[in-house]
User: Which sequence fits this backbone?
């Protein structure tokens, strides 16, 4: 880990942390549950429009931390559990974490992998409806219905 910290400290422009601080942060990050990054697969299934919409909603803080946790649990027990463990280990409720939630859903038994676009978008719409994010739920359902019409 010291070597990793040294490399980060020397090659990341503008970093003002000490080597000890960088080392501590790399140790913390190494302690997070390791995940396969399924961004490409998730994006292929739900489509660019829904992907961009979801991440924009996180960035604009319309999907708040409580919403993200509830949506993660709605998408599957393991999805919710992984999200909770990452948050307890120090991850933040940002778009990277939401991408991890979607990646977990892809890997979940009976999860995103194997769903068609419309079914996946309807499931996401239901998740956001359940946390009272009605405009986002409506937008996802509209994207799903437009997908159905183009098929």
Assistant:
């Amino acid at each position: 880990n010291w070597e990793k910290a040294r490399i980060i400290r020397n090659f990341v422009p503008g970093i003002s942390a000490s080597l000890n601080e960088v080392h501590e942060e790399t140790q913390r990050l190494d302690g997070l549950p390791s995940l396969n990054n399924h961004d490409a697969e998730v994006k292929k299934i739900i489509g660019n429009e829904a992907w961009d919409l979801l991440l924009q909603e996180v960035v604009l803080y319309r999907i708040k931390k409580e919403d993200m946790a509830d949506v993660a649990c709605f998408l599957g027990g393991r999805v919710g559990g992984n999200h909770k463990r990452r948050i307890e280990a120090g991850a933040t409720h940002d778009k990277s974490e939401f991408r991890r939630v979607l990646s977990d859903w892809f890997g979940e038994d009976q999860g995103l992998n194997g769903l068609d676009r419309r079914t996946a978008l309807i499931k996401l719409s239901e998740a956001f409806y359940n946390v009272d994010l009605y405009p986002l739920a409506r937008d996802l359902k509209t994207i799903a219905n437009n997908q159905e019409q183009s098929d």
Observations:
- The chain has a mean pLDDT of 82.
- The longest helix spans residues 134-150.
